[in-house]
Amino acid sequence: MYRLFFLLILCPFLYSQDLGKILWGEIPLTSPLNFDHILAESKNKNNVNLSGSFYINSYPKGVGYDVIRDEKTFKNRNNKDLFFKFPEFKLDLSIQDQNVVIHNKKIIETDDEFWDLSFSDGMAWTKEDHIYISAPFTLIQKHANCSHNGVLLFALNSLNEISQSIFQISSETCAYFQFNYVGIFDSFFDTKDFNKEIISKKNDKKTIEDLYQRYPSIFRGSFADSDAFNIGEVTAYGFFDGEDHFIGPCLTRSGNYPFCEDLLLPAYSLTKTIGGSLGIAAYQKKYGSIISMRVNDLVSSCSKNKWKDVTIENLSDMATGQYKSLMYYGDEDSLASVNFIFNKLSHEEKVDFSCNNYPKKTNPGTKFVYHTSDTYLIGTSLNNLLLNKEEGDFFDDLLVPIFDYHNFSDKIKYIRRTNDARNQPYTGWGMFLQQDDLIKLNSLLQSPERNKYFSKEFLDEGLQLTEDRGLLAINQSDIYYNNGFWAARFDKNIFGCKEDLMIPFMSGFGGITVVFLPNSMMYYYFSDNYTFSWYSAVYAAHEIKPLC
């Protein structure tokens, strides 16, 4: 085993013959690939169709890495533990002309100590009698949401013999651990026949530049292309105008990501809304209201004295009356809370922390204090309520069927869980998704169809469709929290409205925002440098369609 050293800059395009020689081991790789080269090469046609199983020797023949940021949970270990062994996997795929179909697009929980995996559909092209196969992959931190996005590349000759493979990571959505990585591996490909999976051709997405062209009154730089963001911190962003989805570029430290639409996006605390709040709403739609039920009646670990007046709705409002600090994010950013999220892996440990860590300070329903542990108790309560029902798991049995019916991706149908027999969904974090999932979610939540699947009263409050605004969440900011949804208040005079405008949104760790705008519009961005800036997108939306 040897280590490759390289300069972490945007390298020049590799010539096709160089790329071929690298893959077939004729010359060494001395710098990272430029992903723009893969995009350019993929324009070459491929007419060879075949299927097989792809796998690698997990120990790289060569590896190069550079750690850019390293905080919190990854501090106390050697980098070689992370980078000198790749998680074991076997990937079934089919090559259909220029399309590469990955047959298992679900999150793969591996036996590796540090990483899980995800793969998505890729592309193929032919050059000099060789088929080149490239596909997106993601290394995912165990028991967490941190996602490191990369590109897989290998080739097959006319005898279906396989070259070495290259795995390269040049971007991530992870505020506390960032790195560049290139590994070269001995690889294997066994041809097999699989049941053909029909590729559904994706509609051509429009770009943010197309949005500016369609609506010239919009100020350029209204989205995650604004000066508020550093160009390297944005993973993906997009805008939906009620009809079309406009996506921004997926930039990496090695050029444009070739699989922007298939990029894996970690939900982090979006899970609180998509998992926790929709879980409550789905349960109530089928079995009746539970928001007034007391937590101590549903979760035996929560003491009767401290929790006797705390309801499910208090949990969804993060207003249990139990806290140590009223400073925004003070409790959540504590060492104890970080340990709860990353290191307490069993249900017994997580529920014990959630019930007992914070002392009672005031009456429930009066003070908002951000606690991921509150949302964990939502998931626990829901599964306890299902013990005698036909379903056994609120996520798999109540939410996933809705995702299936509306053709959400396989990514969103997964959630992190405890590592014991309980297999309890984390509920407050641990989901993943793709950009189209957000558009489908927006279309579902902003249409009357949502009432087929979810409690109308509960969601209407969260979406700011009633007089109930929720609790003030951040002092001097006009930010509110209600039933797992955030909301920002805009003065009525800004847009010429008769009343103040309440804009609901979801928020995730590190710099993630999804905004539900009037007129069925939506704006989202995923970043990882703790930048939360999106009001300019609201003003842009008003230029597209008046908000009131």
Q: Mind explaining what this structure looks like?
A:
24% of the residues lie in helices and 25% in strands. A hairpin with an 8-residue loop joins strand 9 and strand 10. It folds into three domains: 2-191, no CATH class; 205-261 and 517-548, no CATH class; 270-508, Beta-lactamase. Helix 10 (347-356) crosses helix 11 (372-385). Strands 1, 2, 3, 4, 5, 6, 7, 8, 9, 10, 11 and 12 form a twelve-stranded mixed sheet that branches. It is α+β, with helices and mostly antiparallel strands and 548 residues long. It starts with a strand and ends with a helix. It has 16 helices and 25 strands. Mean pLDDT is 93; it is low at 1-13.
